[in-house]
Write a structure and sequence with these properties.
Blueprint (H helix, E strand, L loop, with lengths): L22 H9 L10 E3 L10 H12 L2 H10 L6 H7 E7 L7 H8 L3 E5 L24 E2 L15 H6 L4 H18 L22 H13 L5 H13 L11
Parallel strand pairs: 1-2, 2-3, 3-4
Length: 254
């Protein structure tokens, strides 16, 4: 899946200041003062609604997480059954990421920025700013993400069947450390803001300039298409598209 000459795939934005000013990390550090899962509070986190093209997959993931010790640890640490998205992602070692209403979902990028290893269960998904969409990128998804075929989840949905846990348990310690190092690198690339303890929580209304890796990468990609190395190819592509109707794909594989 490579971008066209004109098009550029970019990460979903996250402009919630608690992710970057240290307050969220401090809250989680207080809840898990002695984390045991490679310095993460719990092994796995999943929270997702019943929507999108692949409801059985989401339902199986929800059941698997609710049956796990990770669910028990999180609810105990924060004294609530309703674990917030940002809290779970920033606490967990692994974050299952199924399709959303499209092959991608915001959680995939949020997981990486949170320091969680994304476990992708989406056949057609491609990571932006990586070799998935740009052969000249110096970041490959295999450095930071695990991809599990969605077929693995067939037969899931019961506490006696834990296919994601079983798959992840097969990963060795060195492999997990390698993935975590990749997550740290990719997290800087996908973040729209750099960490700053003086940040407020409302970055847009307080007019904070996006200065993170994603913001810088988008500027570079636009430069390539406006008078840069992709300009002529982009012009040719635009003229070809203007001559014929282009049918965009509207279905994806679960």
């Amino acid at each position: 899946m490579l971008t066209h000459a004109c098009g550029a795939a970019v990460p979903y934005p996250n402009h919630d200041g608690i992710w970057f000013n240290g307050s969220l990390k401090s809250r989680i550090a207080a809840a898990f003062p002695a984390p045991t899962h490679h310095n993460r509070g719990v092994y796995m986190f999943y929270r997702g609604g019943s929507h999108g093209e692949c409801l059985p997959l989401r339902s199986s993931l929800k059941t698997e997480f609710s049956c796990s010790t990770s669910q028990t640890a999180l609810t105990g640490a924060f004294d609530t059954e309703d674990i917030a998205h940002e809290v779970g992602l920033n606490s967990a070692l692994f974050c299952p990421c199924p399709h959303g209403d499209s092959p991608s979902a915001k959680r995939m990028y949020d997981a990486v920025v949170a320091g969680c290893i994304p476990v992708v269960l989406s056949t057609d998904f491609g990571w932006s700013l990586t070799t998935d969409v740009d052969l000249f990128s110096d970041v490959g998804p295999e450095e930071f993400a695990v991809r599990i075929p969605s077929e693995v989840m067939k037969g899931g949905g019961e506490c006696e069947s834990m296919p994601v846990h079983d798959f992840l348990a097969s990963l060795g310690e060195k492999e997990i450390e390698r993935l975590l190092a990749g997550v740290e690198k990719a997290g800087k690339l996908f973040a729209y803001y750099k960490e700053d303890k003086d940040m407020t929580e409302t970055l847009l209304s307080d007019k904070y300039l996006p200065d993170g890796g994603a913001s810088e990468a988008i500027v570079r990609e636009l430069e390539k298409r406006v008078g840069g190395e992709r300009w002529r190819a982009c012009e040719r592509e635009r003229s070809e598209v203007a001559k014929e109707k282009v049918k965009e794909p509207n279905k994806f594989v679960c």
